[in-house]
Amino acid sequence: MLAPLTTFGIGGPASYFADATTEEDVVAAVIWAREHGVRMFVLGGGSNVLVRDTGFRGLVLKIGVMGVEACGDGCFEVGAGEVWDDFVEAMTGLGLAGVECLAGIPGSVGGTPVQNVGAYGQEVAETIESVRAFDVSDGKFVALSKAECRFRYRESLFNMDEPGRYIVTRVRFRLRAGGEPNLRYADLQRRLGGMEGLTLTEVAKVVREIRREKGMLLVEGDADCRSAGSFFKNPIIGEEMLGSIAAAARLEASKVPHWPAGDGRVKVPAAWLLEHAGFVKGYADGPAGISTRHTLALTNRGGATCADIERLQERIVGGVKERFGVTLVREPVLVG
Ligand code: EPU
């Protein structure tokens, strides 16, 4: 069963399963799958996936390539299987800046470039120098530069342009020695209100606290974190759409939370749209629900199936579309 390998705790079995602890294992698994005509799905920390109840008919390859190697001048090459937050803790502890706001995010290092993980005003794209991956179509390892990774908001070469082509095995980060912590995000500024001279470790600690309060930190026994984090992407829309959202909510456009997203477009919090369409914290639809602490996380309230979560997803997408004319897009990957 794949359920225990995911933070949602949902999902049926895989026909085949392999644990790759070395790059040679990755190659061997790809060759095996090809020879046997079997589909493959690459699993990292399982924190951003929703696995179907029927499971995955094919080979699930869990990436457990470990190791953190210093390559000098704030540069580290990190195995895809390393736990992301352990890496953040190590870097902040060394006084290296660039990932402190990404503390407490569940999952493994290899997943971070795939969806360009971001939070509290930082994205991994800012510190990734290159990604080493096995190119399944060419049968060889490649080092992809940051530009080649084509990072966008929650998107990259790996999940959008060429999905399934590359298996990430190592990620090279470049951090800033003596760098100041990034305190761009409003939630963070509010919490730190005027405190000065914080160390990177202190900032990371505050970020983990905020995440814990929102049920966005994995805490044993906390039902709100039986989720895949944010379930929907924050939509990026034009000014006229913002106007129609405001009109539907009977508000002035300035009262609808939004942030500039380039090219005259704005990002609107999906959580706000949900709440204003009646999908509030603690909303329950049988065993599927909305976190009691953060509207954007759908949760497995206990014994939920993938079908339960998908039913709730459809209800929310339909409700938000009807209320605001915006079609929300799921953020976690659906497997199976
Ligand atoms: N909001 C609500 N209700 C809520 C929560 C938020 O209305 O329950 C509205 C508020 O207007 C708030 C705004 O949404 O100001 C933004 O909320 P928050 O700061 O919690 O961030 P988010 O947009 O909901 C994004 C990421 C998270 C990341 C946080 C913090 C996406 C899809 N989600 O959430 O990433 O941790 O910012 O930076 O971009 C993830 O991708 O899985 C994820 C957890």
Q: What is the N-to-C order of secondary-structure elements (H for helix, E for strand)?
A: EHEEEEEHEHEEEEHHEEHHEHEEHEEEHE
Q: How far from one another are the termini? A: 13 Å
Shape: globular
Query: Which structural class matches the secondary elements?
Result: alpha+beta
Number of self-contained structural domains: 3
Mean pLDDT: 96
Radius of gyration: 20 Å
Main β-sheet, in a few words? Answer: 5 strands, antiparallel
Given this structure, which CATH class of the largest domain is correct? Alpha Beta
* Annotated CATH topology of the largest domain: Uridine Diphospho-n-acetylenolpyruvylglucosamine Reductase, domain 3
State the helical fraction: 25-40%
Hey, roughly how much beta strand do the residues contain? Answer: 15-25%
In the sheet with the most strands, the strands line up as 5-6-12-10-11
Ligand inventory reads: uridine-diphosphate-2(N-acetylglucosaminyl) butyric acid
Number of helices: 10
Poorly predicted regions are none
Work out the number of β strands. Answer: 20
What does this structure look like?
With 336 residues, the protein is an alpha+beta fold. It folds into three domains: 3-63, Uridine Diphospho-n-acetylenolpyruvylglucosamine Reductase, domain 2 (2-Layer Sandwich), CATH 3.30.43.10; 68-186, 2-Layer Sandwich (Uridine Diphospho-n-acetylenolpyruvylglucosamine Reductase, domain 3); 224-335, UDP-N-acetylenolpyruvoylglucosamine reductase, C-terminal domain (Uridine Diphospho-n-acetylenolpyruvylglucosamine Reductase, domain 1, Alpha-Beta Complex). Helices cover 28% and strands 24% of the residues. The chain contains ten helices and 20 strands. It has a five-stranded antiparallel sheet with strand order 5-6-12-10-11. The relative contact order is 0.14.
